[in-house]
TrEMBL record:
Domain Amidohydrolase-related: 59-412
Record's keyword annotation contains Hydrolase: yes
Record's protein name: Amidohydrolase family protein
Keywords annotated in UniProt: Hydrolase
Pfam families reported for this sequence: Amidohydro_1
NCBIfam families: PRK08204.1
Matching PANTHER family: AMIDOHYDROLASE-RELATED DOMAIN-CONTAINING PROTEIN, AMINOHYDROLASE SSNA-RELATED
Entry annotated with the keyword Aminoacyl-tRNA synthetase: no
């Protein structure tokens, strides 16, 4: 990404620096020069040619980081709202995922990438497991390169074993062509470890090691991956600080100990874990093992791609679990352990650390890349008063309150409007993907996929009769 040359200065905002001390500066300015944060403080002097943005009554925070999102699935936004994980697997892995052509991966990635920056998510890991051919992979990268955000491509292919695609000459050729010297902010290998005692995934881990890239893996997913996968990775020496464990929800203490001891981090997708059934969102466990956390949205086939939802649901799920565990012991939680401030840290620094990018993004401190989000909406009654700034970001703000976004000093959204983005073209591309899927599947299968059967709800026996109060006789009627 090339930064614009024009300096930018935000004036008079409430600045959440997310530096090591989580310094909050009221009425402060953020000065951006040459694509980097030059200074943060009150009453800064800016160059004459600086673009001045009024941040009064707004919150300035670092761009958010999403460490796990299947951008290609954005083409089917909302289709799976009533799915379980089983239905998701059947649709994408077994029945219809193969229908995606390279142009369909492009369409989903393009809309998803635009959605990310619109919501202030300036860095996104595209957990791209629909790369059936090198043409699909090229299409994925073409879309990411067309949008001015930071995108890490996590290369995957659910139609083959990782030991097949990761060792193929086509994959090596792709890596040489598109990753070295390309525009991507990073590159990972994305695959899951099934727990097969023969550990066929070894070959893919060896490729990652040889290329010097991180592995990201869906771990601790009920019914899919479990402690055996973690144990095999650990026993074979493939767990390291760059490893990202997605979900890590259904695991024993032994697995958490192995993750903690090898320095990896967990990407928590709370909304996903709550709806799809990978396991209870694990932050309440991870806190006890001191395992680093980042946040993610997983897929827009169910949920929207903004981290406000992720922060809010993560804080709620953690507290919900803490209350539930206490009530089971007839105890009362009087003080919450998890704070809003911590969740904002996970959405910014936590993501930066997980991706090995903590020196360059994740905080508003001099020298870092200027990935800046201004949350400000003078028309919204929910943006006043701002008393508890971290709490405001987590529980009050929404994506529509994202006023201005900078990526590397470049203005990609201003006054609530995307800048330099052809949203109409992205919509048209997605529309033709939907036409293709509907026509190929047939209308009945398309509708059936979106509307899974509802299991019958058992109505429990009630010892009380349904009754009605009779005011005349002042008695219950039977
Ligand atoms: Zn996922």
């Amino acid at each position: 990404m090339s930064a614009t040359d024009r300096p930018v200065v935000f004036r008079n905002g409430l600045v959440l620096t997310m530096d090591d001390a989580h310094t909050v500066l009221p009425g402060a300015d953020v000065l951006v020069i040459g694509g980097r944060i030059a200074q943060v403080g009150v009453g800064l002097t800016a160059p004459d040619d600086a673009l001045e943005i009024d941040a009064t009554d707004g919150i300035l925070m670092p761009g958010m980081v999403d460490t796990h999102r299947h951008l290609w699935q954005t083409a089917m936004r909302g289709y799976g709202a009533d799915w379980t994980l089983t239905q998701y697997f059947v649709w994408y892995y077994l029945e219809s995922g193969r229908l995606f052509r390279p142009e369909d991966v492009y369409a989903g990635n393009l809309l998803g990438a635009i959605e990310a920056i619109d919501a202030g998510v300036t860095t996104t890991v595209d957990w791209s497991h629909g790369l059936q051919t090198p043409e699909h992979a090229d299409a994925a990268v073409d879309a990411l390169e067309a949008v001015d955000g930071r995108f890490v491509l996590a290369y995957g292919n659910i139609q083959q074993g990782p030991w097949e695609w990761a060792t193929s000459p086509e994959f090596r050729d792709f890596h040489r062509r598109r990753v070295d010297g390309g525009k991507l902010a990073g590159f990972q290998l994305a695959f899951d470890v099934t727990g097969d005692p023969a550990f066929p995934e070894r070959a893919a881990f060896e490729v990652a090691r040889e290329l010097g890239v991180a592995v990201t893996t869906h771990a601790g997913v009920w019914g899919a991956t479990n402690d055996d996968g973690i144990r095999l990775m650990h026993e074979n020496g493939f767990m390291n600080p760059s490893t990202v464990y997605v979900h890590a929800a259904t695991l024993t203490q032994d697995s958490y100990n192995r993750i903690a001891a090898t320095g990896g981090s967990v990407s928590v997708s709370t909304e996903s874990e709550q709806s799809a059934g990978q396991g209870y969102p694990p932050t309440w466990q991870l806190r006890h093992h001191d395992i680093p956390v980042s946040l993610s949205m997983d897929t827009s086939v169910w949920w929207s791609g903004d981290l406000f939802s992720a922060m809010r649901s993560t804080l709620g799920a953690d507290r919900s679990r803490e209350h539930l565990e206490a009530h089971a012991k007839q105890e009362t939680i009087t003080h919450c352990h998890l704070r809003a401030e911590q969740v904002v840290e996970w959405a910014t620094r936590g993501g930066a650390r997980a991706l090995g990018m903590d020196a360059t993004i994740g905080a508003l401190t001099p020298g870092r890349q200027a990935d800046v989000v201004l949350i400000k909406n003078d028309a919204s009654p929910a943006m006043f008063p701002i008393l508890n700034p971290h709490g405001h970001v987590v529980f009050q703000a929404q994506r529509a309150d994202v006023h201005t976004v900078l990526v590397g000093g470049r203005v990609v959204k201003r006054d609530g409007r995307l800048v330099g983005v052809d949203l109409a073209a992205a919509r048209a591309a997605v529309a033709s993907t939907i036409d293709h899927l509907r026509e190929t599947m047939g209308e009945e299968a398309w509708q059936r996929g979106m509307n899974p059967d509802v299991p019958e709800t058992a109505i429990l026996e009630n010892p009380y009769q349904y009754t009605e109060w009779d005011a005349g006789s002042a008695q219950w009627k039977h």
